[in-house]
Amino acid sequence: MTRFQNQTDGISQEALAGLVAEAVQQALVQHGIAMDPQALASAGAIAGSVAAALTFLSQAQLLAVDAFRGEWTALATDFVQSIAGKATRRDAAIVAVDEPTTAAEPGKVASHPPGERMLQSMLIEDWAGEVAGSTYLEEKFRIPRSTLHRWQRRGEVIALRKGGRKHVFPLAQFVDGRPATGISEVLSAIANPRLAWFWLNRAAPGLGGRIPIDMLKQDMVQQVVLAARDFSPV
User: Fold this and answer.
1) Sign of the C-alpha dihedral, residues 222, 181, 117, 206?
2) Which of the listed residues 11, 41, 116, 144 has the most CB atoms within 10 Å of its CB?
3) Greater confidence, 164 or 187?
4) What is residue 155's DSSP assignment?
């Protein structure tokens, strides 16, 4: 048996961590804990990883851990603050690869909030879901390039920069060949397209754990726009 496999029930440590993470996220949402999607996912992942790791300890190790019961809160706080410190130092080393949200002074690199820098450093496919370029959308969705570019100029569609000057478009934002109603208002509230789509495509605590883009497709625009304004880091 390796440290990744529990001999008693056959579930892997990673799988168990995922189950606990999902349960923790649901509990936080049900109790109305105000957290943005990124923080909610992190809370679940950390709790899941810790819980799963504990189940793979020996009995002697579990007894040793239990001896620190009265210090668990302080130890957990130190642990999370340590992670936050490492993340902050990592973010400081990331070079911005997207358009700056604000103009930079001559000789300086424009800064981005940590959440935006994190998304810029990740592959689009890892967090945005299915995306496609204008050629695919014209062939499969019958959206003319001129129409797509007009929507982009007007801020009516979410376009994510990929590489140099190429943009791709999350497919989940389209309904009957056009962007879902309300996307322009969300972009007005969350100006960075990457951050806006990250928020739209994940369960939002401010919306009872529902996914904003799904709500837009159901014409629940007002609720989504209000939640987007509350989420906006600006």
Assistant:
1) positive
2) 116
3) 187
4) T
Strand 160-161 to 131-132 pairing = unpaired
Q: Find, among 143, 147, 124, 127, the residue nearest to 135 by Cα.
A: 143
CA 189 to chain CA centroid, nearest Å: 17
Q: Could you tell me the residue ranges of all domains in the chain?
A: 13-92, 124-231
pTM over 0.85: no
Residue type, 76: A
Q: How many residues does the chain have?
A: 234
Dihedral in degrees, nearest 10, Cα atoms 219, 222, 224, 228: 150
pLDDT band of residue 46 (cuts 50, 70, 90) is confident
Q: Is the separation of the CB atoms in 200 and 173 below 8 Å?
A: yes
Strand ranges inside 26-180, DSSP E: 131-132, 160-161, 167-170, 174-175, 178-179
